[in-house]
TrEMBL record:
One of its GO terms (biological process) is carbohydrate catabolic process. It comes from the Bacteria. Keywords: Disulfide bond, Glycosidase, Hydrolase, Signal. The lineage of its organism: Bacteria, Pseudomonadati, Bacteroidota, Flavobacteriia, Flavobacteriales. Its EC number is 3.2.1.22. This is Alpha-galactosidase. SUPFAM superfamilies: (Trans)glycosidases, Glycosyl hydrolase domain. It catalyses: Hydrolysis of terminal, non-reducing alpha-D-galactose residues in alpha-D-galactosides, including galactose oligosaccharides, galactomannans and galactolipids. The keyword Coiled coil does not apply.
Length: 410
């Protein structure tokens, strides 16, 4: 009997049925909601707080009509700026009635009616980064609000959190969501400041590993308030040793993409390749209403998406770098490998890659490719073309900031 009671107490605390706002147990995230990296669209990179229901509906419409949804993008996430500046008399969050005159519930229903999923943003602190009401002290109330709206994804930020412990704040919200009962993907956005990869797995389905992305190849953009945003290659390299923490249902999140924003198509291609190689969530951040056909082709490249969504769920890594020419690799579930050649430099380069002299060893996950023992067939995933085998050196020109991504099949 004692055993049964102990089991009961244990399951109550595991599933977070306590109503307090402090955490005493491991988070109880909904398991299995993100077995491959989540794919979708988020409003922040292009629109900041200038969001409204017309934009969301048009974005959802284009997500379906353009083929983005068929390629796998299914979450539409409203970032900061969807609320009024104050909670109502009951302490509830209030969707801004000027931006969303038909109400948030109707908008969620619209997005669901297109076969898509809907997400919202809030923050663990007293206010969001843009100064809207934060969730601190309202975790269970806000979780019930999201469950009632029937949203599917919550991005949870880390501004205005002085004196708060990250693991406690995110665990409390995770438990609150679990208690509210609606399966909601929980996206931790604390920028990697408190090593979420070390404690985030039972708490959330993905966690940001860096400060905000900036639409450039390799720059650091210094904000006057003393913080920086980062070019995509800076983020790709920022946390070299944490790939072992990423995997199905607990992803390292390299941030929303800048494809289709301020870089050229070559750099966008490189950005998309690296996000696929790193098994990062693929969240578009561009204006779909102005999307060029080149941008659409990059975002919907099926073979690259298959690399990202591969069910092994292993984050790739940099294999080697020489004179600005980098080689990134990622093991895949069927015994093949994705290999990306990236010209990090400002001048064109010639690739002449001798596979036999360059075996791959993934010491974190125990995968290996020894090209002197096994021959692999090569397919160029951007050209959608066979490209010989590993018997011969891989020889090609590569423009500055350009990539070639190959799939190697034994
Ligand atoms: C932080 C996050 C961004 C975005 C903004 C919104 O900077 O990291 O992704 O959500 O806040 O204010």
């Amino acid at each position: 009997m004692k055993k049964i009671i102990a089991l009961f107490v244990l399951s109550i605390s595991y599933f977070g049925f306590s109503q307090g706002n402090t955490h005493t147990q491991a988070g109880g995230k909904f398991e299995g909601l993100a077995m491959t990296p989540p794919m979708g669209w988020n409003s922040w990179n292009t629109f900041a707080t200038n969001i409204d229901e017309k934009l969301v509906k048009e974005t959802a419409d284009i997500m379906v009509s353009s083929g983005m949804a068929a390629a796998g993008y299914n979450y539409i996430v409203l970032d900061d700026g969807w609320m009024t500046k104050e909670r109502n008399a009951n302490g509830d969050l209030v969707p801004d009635p000027v931006k969303f005159p038909s109400g948030m519930k109707a908008l969620v229903e619209y997005v669901h009616s297109k076969g898509l999923k809907f997400g919202l943003y809030n923050c663990a602190g007293t206010q969001t980064c843009a100064g809207y009401p934060g969730t601190r002290g309202y975790e269970y109330q806000d979780a019930r609000f999201y469950a009632k709206l029937e949203i599917d994804f919550l991005k949870y930020d880390w501004c205005n959190t002085k004196g708060i412990t990250a693991v406690e704040a995110y665990t409390t919200m995770s438990n609150a969501l679990k208690t509210a009962g609606r399966p909601i993907v929980f996206s931790l956005c604390e920028w990697g400041d408190n090593q979420p990869w070390e404690w985030g797995k039972p708490v959330g389905n993905l966690w940001r590993i860096s400060g905000d992305i900036y639409p450039c190849f390799d720059c650091e953009f210094k904000h006057p308030e003393n913080w920086s945003s980062w070019g995509f290659m800076k983020i790709a390299e920022m946390r070299k040793d944490i790939r072992k923490y990423s995997g199905p249902d607990h992803w390292n999140d390299f941030d929303m993409m800048e494809v289709g924003n301020e870089m050229n198509d070559t750099e966008d291609k490189a950005h998309f390749s690296i996000w696929c190689m790193m098994a990062s969530p693929l969240v578009a951040g561009n204006d779909f209403r102005k999307m060029s056909k080149e941008t659409l082709a990059i975002l919907t490249n099926k073979e690259l998406i298959a690399v990202n969504q591969d069910k092994l769920g292993i984050q790739g890594f940099k294999h080697s770098a020489e004179d600005g020419l980098e080689v990134w690799v990622k093991p895949l579930a069927d015994g093949s490998w994705a290999v990306t050649f990236l010209n990090r430099s400002e001048v064109p380069k010639k690739i002449n890659f001798d596979w036999k002299k360059n075996p791959i060893k993934d010491t974190d996950f125990g995968y290996e490719a020894d090209f002197s023992k096994t021959v692999f067939k090569l397919k160029d995933l951007w050209k959608n073309k066979e490209a010989g085998t590993t018997k011969k050196n891989f020889v090609s020109d590569l423009a500055s900031h350009d990539v070639i991504t190959l799939r190697l099949t034994p």
